[in-house]
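Instructor's aside before we start: the two examples that follow are unrelated to each other. I chose them only because their records fit on one page, so don't look for a connection. First example below.
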Amino acid sequence: MPNYDIRNLSVHELFESGCYIIPNYQRNYAWTPAEVQQLIVDIRDCALSNDGRDYYLGSLVVFQRGPNVFETVDGQQRHTTLGILLAALKNEFGQSLQGIAGINLEFDSREVSSMTLSRLFNKRRSLADDSDEHTMLVAYRECTRVLREHNAKDIRKITTYLLNQVKIIRTPVPNETDLNHYFEVMNNRGEQLAKHEILKARLMKQLPEEQQSAFAAIWDACADMGRYVQLSFPKESRTKLFGKDWNSFPNNLAHVVATLKSSTRHDQSKSLNEIINQPPSKPPRDDEPDEADDIGGIVTFDNFLLHVLRICSERPKRDVPLDDKRLLATFGREDLSPNPSIFIINLLRCRMLFDRYVIKRQINGEWGIKTLKYKQGTNKDSIYYIESFDEGESQKIVMLLAMFHVSFPTQIYKHWLSAALWFLYKQNTEQIDGQAYLKRMEFINDRFLFGRFCDNEPIDYYELCFENGTKTPSEINETHLHRGTDVQNFIFNRLDYLLWCQLRDGFVFDGIDMDAVMIGYKKFAFTLRTSVEHHYPQNPAGQHMRLSESKKMPHGCDTFGNLCLISRSNNSKLNNLIPDAKKGHFSESSAVESLKQVFMFTYKNWGPKNETAILHHEEMMIKVLCTRAKQRLLSQTVASHKN
């Protein structure tokens, strides 16, 4: 007789026994690197918090086929990812799994998926094997990449916590259940109320009635991340709120209350319940410039709220996670809960700074930093945009912030944005000095490399972003550069940014075809690239030799000189081609994904018989990568004197 008891299982108990079958009606494994990263970070945060609480992943809904054999109805993505995470901890970090012998998942009629999980756990083949399921290999690499940011002590803590205190609730369904229908229902559930809407209600309840409508107006305007915040207020209120050019910060909530008091869109007679439950009222867009439509922001409103909570105090708060799933719990903590009347004004101010000084996708698809302006005319008023800084400063700041953004696409890792907002917020001025802003973010760029990504004992992001007195190593540990596909994306993005800066300033690299490089420089822009490519492939097509380890190149194909960062689609298409064949493909492209790759293409010969070229390139790239902002400034000064 099958057992229909609901079981609360630890990860160790889940994998120690039993067999779970993924039926045909289930989709393939489909978690993205961002989702894998989110799971690991959630578990990591709980493991290192030392509060002793268990972490609940949710439900694993199953149908019992036989004794200790279960058909998974809902939860296979989490279950599969946990198995891949265990494989990475075992193989890449030497962690004991307390007797777990394998990943206890099998797939009906999908032998490749079953075999891939087995191979990952037992590491029987190279991770570049074309016969394996690609999404699982990507998830394995992402697990390895994220975990490499932590020292050995933390890895042991994470492993122990994962096995014993990460829990999943196994819930069986009755025998008579129509499993296909149940699966369809489980995957078409309606949307729940957004967390920021619940938070809005909680904060408003703490305010007197006469302030609640104004609070709601500011909140709703800030929540629309698709256009500049001034444009989300009623037209007749904008000049009174933001001054004659719409760029002054409202000082307090009382000022907003007085300004909006006569607005029909925020009637003071409405009850709190009506204000909370009505959909946000958005002014029409017919008075906006074309460029205002659907600007592309880099964070959600939920995430932005956490940045504001973190920075809007005398000094940034240490214990504010950037995980929007924990939005309500974070704001609900007694030591973090803000004063609503102060917080809402800080929120508006930060949103105006964000709009004006943080990159956004413009209507032409390019990154930009622009300021919204208003000018009253005799016959017609004008609403338009200007560059927030002069052209030279703006270009560099845009590239630097774009570099940070694509390096940390997952919102929980956008600590650099907190650092930028903190700098902007504490200036206490409406006009930011571009050089000072650039200098600060260059400083953060340096600290991330030397203190986080090329050090065996990574320094906490809070220390790097907000504690100037925290010292970082003077040199990098180069072993972090020779890890093949496990090299961190930030390292390549930083290098491409620094190459772009040097080419922009007219530097000439010895032994390089500078004409070809400059063509690539003009085509380069930061895009989301997540795939580390071996320029000379690990498994070259045809009869070409492998690039093996040697005395001069002990890391062989995985040496830093042979690596670059490109999009996953290009890597999968060109994976096994030799450099000459790749060069033909990229020469026809209208865009350049990697400046490092552009430099590699300038070498006539590259491969097992031409280690000298690889080592020359590697030495040049590491020198650029490790140049700090102060040294770059000095070099630019010398170059300008020569010119």
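Example two begins here.
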Amino acid sequence: MNHYAAPLRDIRFALFDVLDVESLYARLGLDAAQRDVLDAVLDEGARFTETVLAPLYQSGDAEGCHFDPDTGAVTAPKGFKRAYEQYVDAGWAGITAPEAYGGQGLPDSLGIALKEMIDAANLSWGNYPLLSHGATEALRHHGEDWQREVFLRPIVEGRWTGTMCLTEPHCGSDLGLLRTRAEPQPDGSYAITGTKIFITGGEHDFTDNIVHLVLARLPDAPAGTKGISLFIVPKMKVAKDGSVGERNAVRCGSIEHKMGIHASATCVMNFDGARGWLIGQPNKGLNAMFTMMNTARLAVGVQGLGLIDRAFQNALRYARERLQMRALSGAKFPDLPADPIIVHPDVRRMLLTCKALGEGGRLLAYHAGTLVDVIEHGTDADERRRADELLSFLTPIVKACLTEWSVECTYHALQVFGGHGYVREWGMEQLARDARITTIYEGTTGIQALDLLGRKILQQQGAGMRQFLSMIEGFCREQQHNPALAEFILPLAEKAREWGELTLHIGKRASADADEIGAAAVDYLFYSGYVALAYWWARAVAGAEAGNAGDAFKLAKRETARFYFQRILPRTLAHAAAIRAGKDSLLGIPAEAFDA
């Protein structure tokens, strides 16, 4: 009873009316990305996700994955493998990959729009091809020529999939503690031994081969993160000439039984002297892995976006149909026995929160995608550098805020359903369960916050943030005399100014005590996310007013922006107060006295 319809109207509005990707693609020389091609891709993506993936969402959750302890084989729920075959046959696997390796070379920002549809339609299914994209990026940028030819092409074509193997039973985000070993072999390969956990798609029945990218230590590696190398370890042995041999010594030991994403195989992977190949330089594995991780972090942010949209769609439909009580100001539908619950202010509050965070978050995520396009296709070195700085700054905001907002919005949407939301058949509790993991994998919200404040702001002197503030200041200056934006420009400019002041305040405190960074980080991240969304909502109103959309569309954008500025942006007041409070109230109780 849970449905999905791709929001093509708003996707096109974000891409074409606000971000003006047509001009960007033309400037970057992306000749294949003509409007007719873009529209065809979006239309077909909608058809595929609505008719193939979405119908499997609830059934896949109910069935879950199947693990055979005798063979280590994992089988996805009914229909999942066939859906993947259709995905590959249609060419979706390589839509943004380079043409040199069998891809279509279309823009990454278009790929993000497609990914939003996939994740909204069926998050668990979308996890299987997710890390293949990250593996593609790691091989492109760090692999040797033969590795790109032998491993990259079948991944791009979808004949093989990829994984990312970092976490170990004793070692989560602190990768300096990992113990997996890599022993050099006479033929130039390595024998990889160790156990990795929480490996998404580590084993499945979609493809004959799975390419694992594994972090491990060489025998003479220095301690900590400076001694980590990255290795290609395929499920089936692959020689340098591309020939595929016998089964490698890697096997799934078990699959996790999780709160959500039941149809996504989360595997314990045991490497027992498995044959692998070094990718990149010895002891420089984190450089290559971060290429893959940053891709995955943006991708997980888009997962949050997809969940927000699907939750909102279903809650909106229910609120229009469910009759319950009368409006406090009098009957709005007197010909009905009761009013639809959409007339009630608190239901409106929940729906508008989902709409504001989702549609604003779409612009935030798609903008990040356009920066990837500039980095990949730009011809001006300075422009690429600036795009990389801005993307680096925005990545933890996209990942953490969109996923945290997905938890909030799926719970709001469930609440709109009342008791029915708690019942499995309506599918709302599944959305809430699925959303919860997005704030955890590929780096928790706390990790993203430390990355934003500690690395992107303090260590890198806020290079990306200065660019974003400049964007806000330039927009406010350009629109200061536009009466259609008058109510948004002043509060946006004031928040941008306060953002800079808070950053300087934290920096001053952190210079005296590094714990101030950890104390402020999460509040700073949310503050940043809310101001960023205020900018995009102001841009959305400007885009709607300048475009050819009808009056109803323009009204909806304006009123949602007004709701955002009046009811969500004030959350920054609490985050600013918490930041200014400092670390003392957090660290006052000794660890051993917490249960006193």
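The chain has a mean pLDDT of 96.
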